[in-house]
Specification:
Length: about 200
């Protein structure tokens, strides 16, 4: 009788496991295909934190790429090296780390002129990918719009928006700047004192 009870218990366990397995598979699949917004926090030394919502539904490749950098700690210790008040602030350049960080492979530019629909407009607080003249050259560098810059729509991959920390954005945009060596800008955009990104992480 005891042996029969043990066998019955084992059978019950396996039955429950078999019943739950399809549910687990569905759950895992849902997570992999989840396009809900992702919250990311960016802490900037002496300035405070900025919180962003990233939109995988709008720019899935771009968001995945950015999160790979975030989760690896790539951005920690880098700077906002290009600050253009009334336009944008730009960061994520590995050259600002003394050459100690390597970027991932360039990604496809998710914007209209490159054949990809992207309805997120470059309004104040929107985060987007920086690139060269090659539409598929974006790697780690990004910029945050300090003011509405809708003239960029269709040519740059916007992928998220600032939800908290506009005061931090304004304070960074207001730092003292100077002309950088080999600058392509018509006015000074290089911070006199480094604006350091201390930490970037996904907020659960």
């Amino acid at each position: 009788m005891k042996r029969f009870k043990k066998l019955l218990c084992l059978a019950l366990v396996f039955t429950i496991f078999d019943a739950l397995t399809p549910l687990c598979m569905v759950s895992c699949q849902k997570d992999e295909n989840d396009t809900s917004p992702v919250t990311v926090v960016m802490e900037v030394k002496d300035f405070g934190a900025m919180t962003f919502e990233l939109y995988p539904e709008t720019a899935p490749i771009t968001v995945e790429n950015f999160l790979e950098y975030v989760n690896s700690g790539f951005y920690d210790g880098l700077t906002f090296h290009r600050i253009y008040k009334g336009f944008m602030i730009q960061g994520g350049d590995p050259d600002m780390s003394g050459g100690k960080k390597e970027t991932l492979k360039p990604i496809k530019g998710e914007f209209a002129s490159n054949g990809v629909e992207n309805k997120l407009s470059h309004e104040r607080g929107v985060i987007s990918m920086a690139r060269t003249n090659d539409p598929n050259s974006a790697t780690s560098q990004f910029f945050i719009c300090h003011a509405d810059s809708t003239f960029l729509d269709g040519n740059y991959a916007a992928f998220g928006k600032l939800t908290d920390g506009y005061d931090v954005l304004d304070a960074i945009a207001d730092v003292e700047v100077e002309f950088a060596a080999n600058s392509v800008d018509s006015e000074p955009t290089s911070p006199v004192n480094p604006v350091i990104i201390e930490r970037v992480y996904v907020k659960e």
